[in-house]
Batch of 2 targets.
Target 1
Amino acid sequence: MSGELKVDNVGKAYRAWNSEWMRAASWFGLPVRPREEHWVLRGVSFEIAPGEAVGVIGQNGAGKSTLLKLITGTAQPTEGRIARTGRVAAILELGMGFNPDLTGRQNAFHSAGLMGYSQEQIEAAIPEIEAFAEIGEYFDQAVRTYSSGMQVRVAFAVATAFTPDLLIVDEALSVGDSYFQHKSFDRMRRFREQGTSIMLVSHSLGDVKALCDRVILLEKGLVLKDGAPDEVIDYYNALIARKENEKLSVEQRRSKSGWITTRSGNGQARVASLLLIDAVTSQEVSLAIVGQKLRLMLEAEAISDIPSLVLGFMLRDKQGHVIWGSNTWHSKQVQRDVHRGERLVFTLDFTCSLGPGSYSVSPALVSTDTHLVDNFEWVDNLLVFDVMNAGSDTFIGSNWLDATFTVDRPAASAIDARD
């Protein structure tokens, strides 16, 4: 059975009543008013198709954890309907309710039993659970002796010991070490290829972008945006900056080539132009060659007097992964006392050490090393260019290395002499 999830106009309210009989009356649908009512989710609707991976992002208090509790059935919605098909495996919190006095092995039996598996099925799966968790002799020691990372290892190994139809993962993996995170994401990718639906809630936007086909942004219990990862994540980043300064504006548009451009800022400075040129011939470049000397040239205009102006560049691949980024704060080239109407030209020279593919440049005009203090203008994916390999040895990946193989074949006599 394939995993499919439908959330239809779901809301969750927490209520306080003047008396217990009024609370009881509300259970039977009688028209009684609560003393207080706080909605943590309202009007949430979306679907997850079989084999689709969907990320859920949002700031603390947006309603993410409440939504997962409703989907898994550990809490009931106040309004709306949730429909699930197939077997659901979920890691909503550290330890999955492990008993600290039981061993990892005993907790694995107990948790898998609660998931509906038989004793025979669990016994057959225990060796794989133990092997995947990789905690050695601790598997037969009390969970209270575990670190948080060890608890996550066992919890994830149990939840994914049997291929689920729908896998739901909350922030639990964020406390694991990088090796186990990589191992866990590999398993989730294999599940997705086999048709498992995945719902991932994480503050790690890189993980969401790498794994998910779609992203849902929650804000104050509402679905603010539901769409492609690059579009939603860039909007979310701009939204965070806007919270620091209510004068910021945010706008988005998608080009014919598929890149999403997100522009935000308070308008005190703007990017007048951005060009990519050949550093030798000064000709504009849209298709770069591996190893080519390139120059980014940006002209900025101050709309207001600015005490401190910093330019940052971020280079991303088609999947939205950051390849490189830096700014003039780190290079100690902050421009002080920039006057209204003044124009500044910034150049960045570099060698194209990228692999074949499509890349984007995102410039940001800010006042310090971060856009959260003063975001004058930030434009995601303002300039897009392609890279091809025309003269270097064939290679794979997003980065070209100026690498040379050396092969040494000792003479037979030298080998015989060592023997």
Target 2
Amino acid sequence: MTPSPDRPLAVVVLAAGQGTRMRSSRPKVLHEIAGLPMLAHVLVAARALQPARLAVVVRHERDAVAAAVLEHAPEALVVDQDEVPGTGRALEVAVAALDGFAGDVLVLSGDVPLVDDRVLGPLLDAHRAGGVTTTMVTAVVADPTGYGRVIRGDGGDVERIVEHKDATDEERAVAEINAGLYVFSSTGLASRLAALGSSNAQGERYLTDVVAAARAAGERVGALTAPDLDVVAGVNDRAQLAAAARRMNDAIVRRHQLAGVTILDPLTTWIDATVTIGEDAEIRPNTQLQRATAIERGAIVGPDTTLVDTEVGEGARVNRTDATLAVIGAGADVGPWAYLRPGTRLGPEGKIGTFVETKNAVIGAGSKVPHLSYIGDTEVGERSNIGANTITANYDGVHKHRTTVGSAVRTGSHNVFVAPVTIGDGVYTGAGTVVRKDVPAGALAVNVAPQRNIEGWVEAHRPGTDAAETAARSQGVPEEDPAK
């Protein structure tokens, strides 16, 4: 929405409450949905309006909430609410902190994470076109329990808002509720907020009482019915948090689908709001894409995959994999059952295969770690192949050490590289080799330990066993007659 030059806008976000129904030590507004705190989603919506001023009111767990505000909206003014309770008091201290701001004041709640321009744009338009000093958003719900009821007069105009605990039985039967979104003209707002009382069931200074005060002054209160209940749905407990997360995820999945991404099973695909996905990528079932994960065009991710802060290159394939802070190059192949820990960088056309764990490892273009290996604190050059069941022994019990493997290396199966050690370009290693010393380019590294066969050992030391008898038969030794 384009800001109006003749009607400056200030946005105030109320985020001071404790949220006791969440039953959590974490402030309610910091519980996450789609990879971001609820409060961050509200700040995104607020900043999209390009307001002249943005203020957030904090109190419970003040430092944690303030830190989140400044992380997601560095320009925001953090306003501390004192011990006087109530949303009316919260807006009062915010208006005072805005220091003589003149224009429209939009009030949002930090626990309404799905709010966006679908309701905010029409709300501001209605306020500016209606010749009113107060405009609010309402919604009609099947079960209004717990919400403030919107009481209208005989002509249909809003008369007042009654909180659930203060409502009569007749008022509680009203299905139209207050959605907690308001626009006020700044003129006279400070004095109206200062005059609010606390004669109610909770002993708080309700912001909702401003509506009755406006009507008592002979002013008309504008009301906009929410076009979609989801965008005004508040979160007060864990069940509502999960419901809001599902609604937001549905919207995120649909947005990616419309942008050219194939998502085979939206119900089992979870994508954070911060994830980017290129055209013609394919996301298969039971996949979670989190934080700053970025997937380039044509990549195939899933099924059964979780990526956190991971980059997937164009045309790469990632199957049944858990990866965090990893980079997967274009055309690379990962999984199934791979575990990429932080610091993993797989080059273009490379492979990290079945039951392979990597950590702080750089694997060059075209290099492969196909099977059953642990590659930690390691750098592998280009076009190398690491044999099955290879371990880089990077920890001596006190310090971590690095292994360096050159390009065009072919290592045998069941190798152990005892770091720090360097394997030169073009090296081959024999099966079962334990490499403790650097291997020069072009060499073959083997452990020389001649095989020793002790004949007759089983018959001598395990007489009467199935193994001994079977071995004897294979050598043509006649069996004894048990009757003799």
